[in-house]
Amino acid sequence: QPQIVESGGGLVQAGGSLRLSCAASGHSFSTYPMAWFRQTPEKERDLVAEINSYGDNTHYADSVKGRFIISRDNAKNTVYLQMNSLKPDDTARYYCAADSYNLGWDSWGQGTQVTVSS
Questions:
Q1: Of all helices (H) and strands (E), which one includes residue 60?
Q2: Is 70 exposed, middle or buried (0-12, 13-18, 19+ CB in 10 A)?
Q3: What is the dihedral angle through the alpha carbons of 20, 74, 27, 103, rounded to the nearest 10 degrees?
């Protein structure tokens, strides 16, 4: 299973932008889907966006469509989440996940905190 490390979180005002990065090592990165999830203390961990191994097929939660963009650079073993027009409701800990054996999200990072102030 790949080792996953997220970065790029922080504090931002509503309407601002952040870009999260997720670096994966080990297993063949270009062969499996990747995703971003988010979680708050009050809610379950929810899928935010996912991307296939080639990077040409993406899926977004309704709450972030049109504002967030997931992308990947297979040469750098990295997935990105560009977050625009951020809202206080986007405040959460964001986790990167890999479906490294195409059997489900089996590898997770430690997460990076995103806080959006109003």
A1: strand 58-60
A2: buried
A3: 80
Judge whether 55 and 111 are in contact, CB under 8 Å. Answer: no
pLDDT in tens, the chain (118 residues): 889 999 999 999 999 999 999 999 976 898 899 999 999 999 999 999 999 999 999 999 999 999 999 999 999 999 999 999 999 999 999 999 999 888 899 999 999 999 999 9
**Radius of gyration in angstroms for the set of CA atoms belonging to the chain, rounded to a whole number:** 13
Query: Could you give phi then psi for residue 31, rounded to 5 degrees?
Result: -105, -5
